[in-house]
């Protein structure tokens, strides 16, 4: 597939691939079955005038280590030309949370890029939470940032910029040119990126108040640029990711509090409340809601309440389409973001120009079409859409008969957004770029200590104004005071409700500590029993062996050998790339720990699978999600999960107790020529 240059067909939103056509199987990455594979292969052919990253340099070794298991200061810089390492790691970190399972597809992927979400993807709470977090990190953060820009303009603090906007608007209003003004402004922002910083100078979201002025960030310091709270972070994007997690947990807490009827601010304060002797009800299961109904005289059991089962069934049946809708919305937002601000190795101009070609006719039409004709057309469309359902349905039925694939062909991702990646598709392209040059991208560095309470660097790229205006109309002293760390902000506890909550937290923590000790003892007992059961042949017990690594154990491995277990046996999963077709194998040979597996013919693996034969890779855990949560909480350690690899003969290989599960998963899906679909 050709990816270089801009040709006329690239500027037109016309699908050139049939997403239902079977293309067959590609054995290796170099077969370039998708635009993603082709871009990865072209990554090494960077013009001499452009910066080339370490992962874009072709290597003669079987695999080159660019800094796996090393501190970020020792990792090669940059890994990809045009991208700082922190941005690459942010993409990979979010990719690891989003993608749980991939399956090979034989058909042409929509828009020329694989790793689209499958229509049949099943609902799970983890996937739904991950999609809600994506919704926060993309759309909600974007809307908040846009709202802060509007507040800055409306406040007149940056008077020159607001005056220009005001003058242009009312001049256009006077001559009935509002639509031409808006369309030409939009067109300029799309095709000429420097205009964006002129019209909308950047400013950290947390630093801008709702009135458009300067405020102290809610975390007490400006430790991050793109987060709402300004919280400090060890790596770029971590603060927003933590906000997204707390955003979802906050909604869950509110929902559970509503179900249990908790109203801490309304209940009368007594010298000794019965609630003081029990932990917070929001920590209990949903059964508390039913208990409260019974205490109120209601009868929530199925014999009295005939609505419970059908309503719950209806709600759960709708959760999958809701999850898909959230995912589609986030995907579309990411595609438009990557269209307007492309990331290497994707083309820098092609997609923006295509969008400009679509917007340009609106400007020219608005110059000649009167507002009267425009409104007549809009109101006719509204009326036809409301009253013309019989005609519309017959039209759809005719299209379904004559062109059964028309809906797939006209999807945004196969027309206007053809070839534009989501963040997941961008990430797998970067992973493939490294694999194409035998230089797999190092995983995001793992830092366990909390981020330091220090301010982020704020330069002209992060905070500026138009012309001679001062940024946010604030003096340097005001900005320094707002950015500086204040230990009191974000940690203040005041008011009767807060005192009561603090008392609940203190007493609740004692109770939780007691239960943690009890649970810890139960976990240790279960681990001992698992060893006995595994020796007796229990498959489930074998899958749990090693899932809880010893404290302070050395878990470093990769990029070739990965510590793991198979059928309960300790060993290493390793990737052999010396042959024409790379393979994934497992060996219990203890010498791998010391001398590795590269260029060794004395290893006798228990099994070996060509990477090109893999049709399904799924992330799994040795424990169920409930047990995993309890074990991790009781032992205060991260559990090592595993992978299920399925080959073309439908043989399954379950690799467990795999500390670097995500890293092995990423290498396997990026090495071959498969076209993947996310499940």
UniProtKB/TrEMBL annotation:
At the top level, the lineage of the source is Eukaryota
Q: Which InterPro entries match?
A: DUF3292 (IPR021709)
For this protein, the parts annotated as crossing the membrane are 135-151, 171-191, 355-374
| Region forming the signal peptide | none
Provide the species name. Cochliobolus carbonum (strain 26-R-13)
Specify the protein name: Uncharacterized protein
Q: Does the keyword Protease apply?
A: no
Question: Which intervals of the chain are annotated as region Disordered?
Answer: 1-28, 259-281
* Keyword Transmembrane helix set for record: yes
Instruction: Alphabetically list the UniProt keywords.
Output: Membrane, Transmembrane, Transmembrane helix
